[in-house]
Amino acid sequence: MSTPQPLHLHASRDDRRIAALAALAIAIHVIEAALPSPLPGIKPGLANVITLVVLVQYGWADAAWVSLLRVFAGSLLIGSFMTPTFALSLAGACSSLMMLALAWRLNPLLPGQGLGAVGFGVLASMAHIGGQLIIARLLFIPHDGLFHLLPVLMTAAVLFGIVSGIISQSILIKLHQD
Amino acid sequence: MIKTINSPGLFTKADIVIICAALLVLPLLYTQFWGNGSQGEIARVQVAGHEPLQIPLQRSQRYTIKGPLGASIIEVDEGRIRFVSSPCRNKLCIHSGWLQHDADFAACLPNLISITVSGRNPRFDSINF
Amino acid sequence: MRQFILIIVVLICGCGRQDDADDQLHQSQLLALGTLVDISLWHVDEKLAEEAIQGIDSQLRQFHHHWHSWLPGRLHDINTALATGLDIELNDNELALLQHASQLAAQSEQLFNPAIGRLIGLWGFHSDNPEGPPPPDSAIRKLLQQNPRMSDLVFSDHKLHSNNTAVQLDVGAFAKGYAIDQAITLLRQRGIDNAIVNAGGDLRAIGRHGQRPWRIGIRHPTRPGVIAAVEIQGDESVFTSGNYERFYDYQGQRYNHIIDPHTGYPSKHTLSVTVIHTDATTADAAATAMFIAGPEHWRAIARQMGIEQAMLIDDHLTVHMTREMAQRVELKQDLKSAIEEPA
Fold it and tell me: Is the pLDDT of residue A131 over 70?
């Protein structure tokens, strides 16, 4: 009787690419976790640079994989899995991705070249903060006084969105020059 | 799916539109969520022993509320509310003037009618006076 | 491979805490003790809440009738006996209340003096609609000479006797506090540990509003806005005595209901006194006593009565606060304030 064969998982080329990009995003996420922030768990989302580059280069589906892998694996590495920080991170990532899905769909309809990384970056960033605030309100901070912070946080979101968009766009330009 | 980037620039036209739209939205957020939290939104008008009436302060209107002494008239005007007339003796309720901020309060005790204003973010569970 | 990861993604634990939605707050308003009583209960099931409110309603009604300052009732009977030098038998509750009152009177240098019922009546405040004219000075002086005080009362077992026939009991200066304490006891007996009972602006709060403390606003004495905010810690009462609560105007002069037992006249110089303390009975009596003591003497009375957190607003609208009060309370408006140094 032959011994049962071990199950072989074959990583496709796409898998490897996603894994590499996710690893990069996770690294940024972990480093960013060490930075101070205005509210626990609400981060500027610098790892979004990777997400934006993946979005423009490879499309929304890949960007979603990278983003979610980043959130899950990143939180496991930091040790924040299933903590409030994780919930906020996930909420931000999900709402950001939903916004990007919408923007990605509508992009071909836009005049000219449509949106670049900056446009996607600003939209993603604002959605990210919005999602985090909603989850924070529902699960952790039980009164509407929290929304008092919304204008300031949204301002920061727009700024970070522009910055990460510029960084992403620069990376993309560099990639295409090579 | 690979998208080619045609323009060597950092911003596309659509990007600029998004940025402008975001910058326009920001001041609105400030007016909506800052400082105005204390502005009155709703007044709770109650005749003791009965269910309270929730009156929105955006709609300018007069209300006649019947208490044991008779009818008190309450006026709402542009986010404010006040007693206009009341059958009590001291008219303290009327002298309280316009109520417009969260936790502002006036009452006609003889006629058992009280008005409490609540802002969007009610700050207090109870008021001592 | 990605499919396996997808399965992990799907296994999201949706465990959020069911938190402090305001639909856990049960609020009702009663008419009792001659004023509006607001009761807030946190996280209590509807039926229990309704029963508790009914219980408080009848308890307050009973108390109001029993201890009413001028309408026929038990207090009236007690006063009649005392005025004629007769003994009267008290029940346990009555004994407890009057002994507590005596103790507070002694601690307040008799500024809290529930024995001056005659004086209060003389000024016309034994009426739902007090009005002038103010009494003649001669009548006031006569009563002052008779000097009715709680120390004139003799308690032997359950019998009460007064050595001074001028004593007429009027517990209005601490009745609200006493009644609120009783209401809180009732709530506790029914297993309700998070509540606010607010009678005409004076309140006692126990427990919390769910995950956060109860937040109390203290109103400005003359304007409709809030001047101070305080977060309740544990079990606390917030009481304010003001010169604007009961008064009448006569020929351009205003006469308020807080009569100074030493001068025989309504207290001047004070606009309001706010006290934060544990039990409501002491808070109520202390607020009255400190009001009468005025800007010069209130600090000493506070200390004697064991009150640490207190604030007095004088008739120039200056806010005086004890240091503990200043640390505790967030003063909102632009008011002239003075933090009293301990003597």
Answer: yes
> How open is the CA angle C111-C116-C118, to the nearest 5 degrees?
155
Residues of A in contact with C24 (CB under 8 A): none
Q: Distance (Å) from the C-alpha of residue B112 to the closest C-alpha of chain A?
A: 31
| C153-156 β-sheet, strand order | C88-89, C159-162, C153-156
Residue A8 confidence class, pLDDT cut points 50, 70, 90 = confident
Mutation target for C interface from A89, A139, A144, A146: give the one with most C CBs within 10 A: A139
Tell me which residue in C129, C214, C221 faces B89 most closely, judged by beta carbons. Answer: C129
More confident residue, B49 or C164: C164
pTM of this prediction? 0.68
Q: Which CATH class is domain B38-119?
A: mainly beta
Cβ contact (<8 Å) for C19 and A12?
no
Nearest by CB to residue B125, choosing from C31, C215, C225, is C215
In a domain, C138, yes or no: no
- Written as one letter, the residue type at C8 is I
Low-confidence residues of chain C: pLDDT under 70 = 1-22, 333-343
Contact with chain B for residue A176, Cβ under 8 A: yes
Question: Is A171 among the domain residues?
Answer: yes
Question: With a CB-CB cutoff of 8 Å, which residues 152-171 of chain A face chain C?
Answer: none
Contacts of C231 in chain A (CB under 8 A): none
What is the nearest CA distance from B52 to chain C, expressed in angstroms?
9
Domain residues for C286?
A: 26-42+195-339
Record: contact A111-B13, CB cut-off 8 A? yes
ipTM of the complex: 0.87
Which CATH number characterizes residue A131's domain?
A: 1.10.1760.20
Q: Find which of B12, B20, B30 to mutate to test the A interface (most A CBs within 10 Å of its CB).
A: B12
Q: Are C196 and B74 in contact (CB under 8 A)?
A: no
Structural domains of chain C, count:
1
- Confirm or reject contact between A178 and chain B (CB < 8 A): no
Assign A87 a pLDDT band (cuts: 50, 70, 90).
Answer: confident
